[in-house]
Write a structure and sequence with these properties.
heterodimer, A: mainly alpha, 77% helix, globular, B: mainly alpha, MetI-like fold, 2 domains, two-stranded antiparallel ribbon, 1% strand
Chain lengths: 284, 314
């Protein structure tokens, strides 16, 4: 195979290259605009006054106003605080449970490991929505209904399997024999974990923490079923009620769009910060 | 990830027979694992079993429950809305196919682009990371027949005769919520596949090119086999998660008109939150659970069969 024929090959393939290149960039452009387009409209709408909304079809607001954002934020204030408290607590509990569990799965051998691991995979694939009925009645019996602690617990159902999955992957990939070397220097099994492994895992722990936080922040189902309007309702539930609860009331679209952006921004930021670790764990 | 029966037996027989010794030797490992185990049992399997018990009762959210035997199931299966709901659920789950096609295409395209990779990747994730209620609210506005800009442009351009009131038409509404859900969650498939694609060594492709393999041949012989387990994981998870997503379609149509866009998840939500009939709610849950199980098992079996044959020739 000479270089001549190689060059010839490339020439012959030229139209094909153009076709695939065009397809590739065309598809990426299509996807990017299918996301940025809607968001652009939403952002622009959030700066329009109600009068502008109804007066003209123009996409760009003629006299942009911050009023929507101010009212949206004031209205959501309390529920955003609820969301924050719910998500923070969920994250702390999830980390406390899953760090040791994932460590056992990632770096230890013990009888029953396989069974336990499949139990977690099964939990990951569990259609958790079927649990809303038994959880509602149990939560009422135990006085957890309408309480922040009740939501912290309920969210473990879908946060922990995920957290274990990602952390286990990270622990597994740490160099072998770390603990043994630590034990040579006088650490016990427990202090080796606490003083050697844990500090090394901080980036992964942070990523999992972010993910737990945004999962709890985003969830509507459990917070809607396990609270009532007298309880600690998070921002997503309040947003849901603006449309479905507002019977025939006039909808202020600009303000509504500002609300969606306010609620959507924190999880987006956290995800982008954590994405490297999260994607690594899903490379199967 | 394939496990032989021997490994299973070894794993399980570990504690049968000499449980105490095993405990003495592995106490630290078990101590680490206990919190996870307790939570799995107390929060997933415990409530699940209680739910099965509840489904044999007339069980209001507050107040006394009474044993009704199989009445809940009898009522459910004799109720027309259940079949409307199952039909809607099947249409709604077709989005998994769309998510696979778009997610795979996006992953393939992005691995072949060197500049702005992180940036494009970040854009793909915007809708996916926001609460589904949020994206549902946005699309509710964007597609609103009177105030939404999209229908307005389409009618202005003459592409649409008159605005479509999709919220009051179940036939159109079900497709609207299906497509919006596909739009929201395809990036998950993309994430998993993209991560795996970047792990395929370049040498594989170089060798293939030396032997004159076309792009399509390279895709079938190298990319697809390497992506096999990634596709399996991504799609199994999506099948289940697409069926349990309730908030976004609920926000967009409220499950109406009637029950026409009430996928089983919404039906279950309405029984719990609106009717407050927990026994009925769980019997819907059982139907949903069985459908999820059937879909997942069917998919995994067919997938293994299809790729198993492909693997032999490759």
């Amino acid at each position: 195979m000479s270089t001549e024929s190689g060059r010839f090959d490339r020439l012959r393939r030229y139209p094909e290259d153009v076709f695939w290149g065009g397809l590739k960039y065309g598809f990426v452009l299509l996807l990017v605009s299918s996301i940025l387009g809607p968001y652009l409209i939403v952002v622009l709408t959030s700066f329009k006054t109600p009068q502008q909304m109804f007066a003209s079809d123009a996409l760009i607001p003629s006299q942009p106003t911050l009023e929507n954002w101010v009212t949206a934020f004031t209205e959501l204030q309390g529920s955003l605080l609820n969301s924050l408290v719910i998500a923070l607590g969920t994250t702390i509990i999830a980390l406390a449970i899953t760090i040791p569990g994932a460590y056992a799965f990632g770096r230890k051998e013990f009888p029953g490991k396989l069974l336990g691991f499949y139990g977690i995979v099964l939990a990951l694939l569990f259609p958790y929505i079927v649990l809303v009925a038994p959880l509602s009645s149990l939560w009422i019996d135990f006085g957890l209904y309408n309480s922040v602690a009740g939501l912290w617990l309920a969210y473990q159902i879908f946060v922990t399997p995920f957290a274990i999955w990602i952390l286990r992957d990270f622990f597994e990939k740490l160099p072998a024999n770390l603990e043994e070397s630590a034990q040579v220097y006088g650490c016990s099994q427990f202090t080796a974990f606490l003083r050697v492994i844990l500090p090394l895992s901080l980036p992964a722990v942070a990523a999992v923490g972010f993910l737990s936080f945004l999962t709890a922040w985003n969830d509507f189902l459990f917070s809607s079923v396990l609270t009532s309007s007298q309880g600690p309702q998070p921002a997503v539930v309040v947003l849901y009620l603006t449309i479905s609860g507002g019977s025939g009331e006039r909808v202020f679209w600009g303000q509504l769009m500002a609300q969606t952006l306010i609620i959507g921004f924190p999880p987006l930021t956290l995800y982008l910060l954590a994405r490297k670790r999260i994607t690594d764990a899903f490379a199967v | 990830m394939s496990t032989t029966t021997a490994e299973w037996l070894q794993d399980v027989s570990g504690w049968i027979g000499n449980g105490r010794e095993v405990l003495r030797e592995y106490w630290f490992e078990y101590l680490l694992f206990v919190p996870t185990l307790v939570f799995l049992l107390a929060l997933v399997w415990g409530p699940f079993v209680r739910g099965v018990w509840m489904s044999f009762h007339d069980w209001p959210l507050f107040g006394e429950s009474t044993w009704v035997g199989l009445d809940n199931y009898a009522y459910l299966f004799g109720w027309d809305a259940l079949y409307t709901s199952i039909r809607a659920t099947i249409i709604f789950s077709l989005q998994t196919v769309l998510q696979l096609v778009v997610g795979l295409g996006a992953a393939l395209a992005l691995t072949r682009i060197s500049s702005f990779r992180d940036f494009i990747n970040g854009i793909y994730l915007i809708g996916f990371t926001m609460p589904p209620v949020v994206t549902g609210t946005m699309w509710y506005f964007l597609l609103h027949p009177q105030f939404g800009p999209i229908q307005q442009y389409l009618t202005d351009l003459g592409l649409l005769g008159s605005p479509v009131f999709w919220r009051s038409s179940g036939d159109i509404g079900i497709w609207v919520i299906t497509l919006v859900s596909a739009w929201t969650f395809w990036p998950f498939v993309f994430l998993v596949l993209f991560a795996s694609l970047t792990n395929i060594p370049d040498e594989h492709y170089e060798t293939a090119r030396v032997y004159g393999a076309s792009r399509i041949q390279q895709f079938i012989r190298i990319t697809l086999p390497q992506l096999k387990s990634a596709i399996l994981v991504a799609i199994s998870i999506r099948i289940v998660w697409n069926l349990v997503k309730v908030s976004q379609p609920l926000q967009m149509t409220g499950g109406g008109p009637g029950y026409e866009t009430s996928i089983l998840a919404i039906l279950l939500y309405r029984f719990t939150k609106e009717q407050r009939e927990l026994g009925l709610s769980f019997s819907v849950g059982v139907v949903l659970f069985v459908i999820t199980l059937v879909f997942t098992v069917l998919f995994i079996r067919e997938f293994e069969r299809a790729t198993g044959e492909g693997g032999e020739t490759a």
